[in-house]
Design brief:
Two copies of one chain form a homodimer. By secondary structure, chain A is of the alpha+beta class. Helix content of chain A is 67%, strand content 12%. Chain A binds a DNA duplex through residues 36-38, 52-54, 62-69, 72, 85, 88-92. Chains A, B: Residues 1-138 form the HTH marR-type domain.
DNA sequence: TGAAAAGATTGTATCCGTACAACTAAGGGG
DNA sequence: CCCCTTAGTTGTACGGATACAATCTTTTCA
């Protein structure tokens, strides 16, 4: 069976509409945490796993100098701490504090809350979506 | 049958990963059009349908003054024109020029290109996705 | 007709983010 | 040991975006 390129395009458009237009919670997060979205993103990643500055810069897709500013701000807020890497004194390991973990969780809850139509979806369809998505994001 | 909230959350996370992390083409668009993403977004909407400044501001989720700057820039590039509304001389109708339509189409092609895993998807699953998405974005 | 409201523009201030240059400290290899 | 590389920081400059005040024209309506 061959593909219907129009169908693939329509599906992609639907996915983008859902995520980017209908249920984009960025502003909610910045309002709830009172920080820019990139700071919240940094905090979420750091809460998931401690990281060096270099790794964090890669995750944020920004350069090292700006990463320093972001982490400076998070440290000032008491949400993360910077420690020297035990095996390489050049590197700093950034770790979320308990307070930082709590804050990151607030962001996760806002961003991760499934939109109403997804919650109202027919359970069989939801399971199907789950299966298909597993292959798509694999 | 009752819902599995974990499944809904997992599906939502998958959707976000796909659209926001794996196949975000914003930078491609800004590079191809040599303009900020919000300008490209304005141009795409204007190419789809002429609009007043007020309507465009709403679409862009920005305020009227900044919308003026964005449209000024698009006019300067010859991609849109501003005309007085025939029924209300206070309003301006912004319309894409033929050149603007061509440029918008480039952006649409970049953003609308379905990601590889979607093109490689089993046709039956693609059709299922199409059906489910139609209910989700309805 | 005169006051109030709406649409758009101009101007200003500020923050966010990107990009670079320059520098310090530490590690690695000849 | 010296040179080169790497990690991180500091500083600067600039464009992008948000927010707000003020102004002008046009429309609406009492």
């Amino acid at each position: 069976m061959s593909h219907d390129p129009q169908m693939a395009a329509r599906v992609w458009r639907g996915l983008r509409t859902l995520v980017l237009e209908r249920y984009d919670r960025r502003k909610e997060v910045t309002a709830a945490l009172d920080m820019s979205f990139i700071r919240a993103k940094a905090l979420r990643h750091l809460a998931a796993a401690p990281m060096t500055m270099r790794q964090l810069a890669a995750v944020l897709a920004t350069d090292a100098p700006y990463t320093t500013l972001v982490v400076d701000d998070l440290v000032r807020r008491g949400l993360v701490v910077r420690d020297v890497h035990p095996d390489d004194r050049r590197q700093k390991i950034v770790t979320a504090t308990p307070e930082g973990e709590k804050t990151a969780e607030i962001a996760e809850r806002i961003l991760g809350e499934p939109p109403p139509p997804l919650l109202d979806l027919d359970p069989a369809d939801l399971a199907t979506l789950d299966r298909i998505l597993a292959t798509l994001v694999k």
